[in-house]
């Protein structure tokens, strides 16, 4: 029965992808039992899929703990993806200059559902840095890049995000829906966003929007660092971040209309 076999294959592929997506920064390692329980699959099914994934390098198994983690194949695929993103190629020299000027780490981020995902990064040479990495997912309402990207979405998208709840991470996290709405309006009007200890204590950032050739905001550029070093309300910092965003936008084909 070809049709039944095809459905079985599709189901296996889907479950294998669910296994890969279940690993996270909070849970980088999992046992067969933990995966089976969280995904509502039988342990035999999970074991079979993990064996296949391991044979191709997508996961690896710790022989001592019997726990699985993502393998190097994932890293290789990520390298291929990020190296061929046009924005990364065009932004690289601009980010390097920004990092050189401000001596803090810079990122390019994109919206992905209810999260902001960092797709490119240029590190500063400072001995103490704010922790971040490519592929990291953060909430939208408590990061400068997230607020930038959310502020340019349609109202229904903003309201849908608010309806899912605004989780508190620090004393500075915006948890009031009306405050967030007003903040997003201000961000859109001024063209930049600031976050001071809203997601993690001791960390500050400034972000600005990057547009593509259609004029739509598709990425955000941000500079991030410890609050004792990075002062987000410094006009010179804001100007440099916005200028970098505009330069990358032009590289992507965006030209603002002359008034």
TrEMBL record:
Q: What this chain does, per the record?
A: May be an activator protein for the gylABX operon.
Could you tell me which species this protein originates from? Paranoxybacillus vitaminiphilus
The entry's keywords: DNA-binding, Transcription, Transcription regulation
* IclR-ED domain boundaries: 73-254
Answer yes or no on keyword DNA-binding. Answer: yes
Q: Name one GO molecular function term.
A: DNA binding
Do you know which Pfam families this protein is assigned to?
HTH_IclR (PF09339), IclR_C (PF01614)
- Domain HTH iclR-type, which positions? 10-72
Highest taxon, organism lineage: Bacteria
Q: Which GO terms describe its biological process?
A: negative regulation of DNA-templated transcription
Q: Can you name this protein?
A: Glycerol operon regulatory protein
């Amino acid at each position: 029965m070809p049709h039944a076999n095809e459905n079985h294959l599709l189901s296996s592929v889907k479950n294998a992808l669910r296994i890969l997506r279940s690993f996270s920064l909070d849970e980088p390692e999992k046992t067969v039992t933990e995966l089976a329980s969280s995904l509502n699959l039988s342990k035999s099914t999970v074991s079979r899929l993990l064996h296949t994934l391991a044979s191709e390098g997508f996961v690896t198994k710790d022989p001592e703990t019997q726990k699985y983690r993502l393998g190097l194949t994932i890293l290789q695929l990520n390298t291929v993806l990020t190296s061929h993103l046009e924005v990364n190629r065009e932004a690289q020299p601009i980010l390097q200059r920004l990092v050189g000027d401000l001596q803090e780490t810079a990122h390019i981020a994109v919206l992905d559902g209810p999260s902001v995902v960092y797709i490119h990064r240029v590190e500063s040479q400072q001995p103490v840095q704010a922790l971040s990495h490519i592929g990291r997912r953060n909430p939208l309402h408590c990061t400068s890049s997230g607020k930038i990207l959310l502020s340019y979405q349609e109202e229904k998208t903003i309201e849908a995000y608010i309806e899912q709840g605004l989780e508190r991470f620090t004393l500075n996290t915006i948890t009031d829906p009306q405050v967030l709405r007003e903040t997003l309006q201000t961000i859109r009007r001024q063209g930049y966003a600031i976050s001071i200890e809203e997601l993690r204590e001791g960390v500050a950032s400034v972000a600005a929007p990057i547009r593509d050739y259609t004029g739509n905001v598709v990425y955000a550029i941000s500079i991030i660092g410890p609050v004792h070093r990075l002062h987000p309300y410094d006009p010179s910092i804001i100007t440099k971040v916005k200028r970098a965003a505009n330069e990358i936008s032009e590289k992507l084909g965006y030209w603002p209309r002359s008034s």
